[in-house]
Amino acid sequence: MLDDNRLSKVLYIDLTKKSYWVRDRIDLFSKYIGGTGVGIKLLQEECPKETDPLGKDNPIIFAVGPLTGLFPLASKTVAMFKSPHTGNLGESHSGGRSAIAIKMAGYGAIVIKGKSDIPVYLAIHGDHVYFRDASALWGMKSCFTVGRIIRENEPGAGLRTIMRIGKAGENLVSYASVTTETFRHFGRLGLGAVFGSKKLKGIIISGKRSIKVQDKKTYKELYSEIYKAAVDSPLMKKYHDLGTPENILKLNEMGGLPTRNLQKGHFEFAENISGENFAEHYLGRRLACFHCPVGCIHLAALREPYEDEPYFYKTSMISYDYEPIFALATMLGISEPEGFLKLMDSVEKYCIDAMSTGVVLAWATEAQEKGIITEKETNGLNLKWGDYKTYIQALSFIVEQPNTFYKALSKGVEHASSIYGGKEFAMAFGGNEMPGYHTGPGAHLGFLTGARHSHLDSAGYSIDEKILPKTSLSAEELGRRLLEEERWRQILSSLVICFFARGIYSPQITTNALKIAGFSFSEEDLKETGKVIHAEKYRFKEQEGFSLKNIRIPQRIFQTPSAVGNIEKAYIERALNYINSEISSAI
Question: Taking the model in full, what pTM does it have?
């Protein structure tokens, strides 16, 4: 049972009626913990079957976990919604200060329903919710400016969070994102478009609650154990020193770095855009999410002269991680660090998902090379590998949608290829553009079957890297391991633990931490709960028309050798059948 100190309150907001209310949902939090677990149950309650993802009945749900504010690295917020990009489950996680701000405001979750008649932003300050007129913010070119204006006009400095969308969300690009704290995002699956469809420009949340623990001595001991594991871990040192871009050279050497729309697994200019090169020549600052001792957020300082004042320079701080470098550099053949950073800066200003953007542009480049599309479709652009200036122009067209081709691109590569052709090199899995791993069958099977079609669902790339080079696995065994990992990750994401800390939060540590937080779960209880949460996600996906039996497998993955050699189609299909059978029996 939940301790009285735990927050099980859910804030409900109706944008249509400009009203709000609070309900105690101990029924959900005591069973499903928080985060992903509570989020999927609230989504099932609030999202009617076959709801238009861009209609007023599609809810936005934010949920945090019981360890937020108590232990290090419990710093994520889970967003749940029906995705306008895939038409089924939309789930996105963001770090920064959003989780602690929601917790300090007094809530375990927030549900936003309806649609405003005018542009608004929500100001949630503890027990009070204000509906601010955002008409003057609507249409602003940069979401950075929007964040600054909200920051300067609202109280609660310190532990507040500011979420906002850019032009991509306003124009309903299906992979538009929501930016929080400038350099963190609810990136994948189109939450920004859902904001835009509701005329919701942004949200600011602040609060001054405190968290109490019963057994302070045990709490301090466990806190110290987790903290020490985090700061002493070689893995965490990697994230602090170079960040995830350390993976560039490693994956390139393995032959698992997707290049030029996965025509190759090796990028000949990888050193130029490696984590090592960025750290030596461009690193301007490191940041951390709230209550994180690691500091994995890396910002590059890009110094450029003003066009009309050659002796005066502006310095832009631009975040970089492995996935944006893969999507906006190697996938597009961009070898210049400055070129990547300028494209990344445009992605940030428009507030659009970097991975989907890069994969969409890569498909369009290859389609133009093959004559499937011409400059008539591209509005006069000649898309070429490595030409970042043209890609920046193309990005602006995706956001503004001046013709039917860019309107198609604004709905993703699965949609665009269904209209123009080129599906065999359209790198989408379950409708979501691929992440940056061509390590072997584990990675791609994870993209296909993960509830979010993400590399973070089951980390199949890890099996490719650590297990498959040493020993072979049957298709069924690979499927079993992927399912087992994804089901455990439902617990971590219900606690809102950063997945970088998955090696620290073992089942034993997790049960001990939950006990301090007021929960009584055994390790077996947690495993069973993870299985149930995963099944609930798939129940929602199938309710909205998704089926693993009908999923499209991009043929390119069988044509380009991976880090562990050629991937066999029959092997992937056997594993798919196994996973589908296991999920069906769980549902």
Answer: 0.96
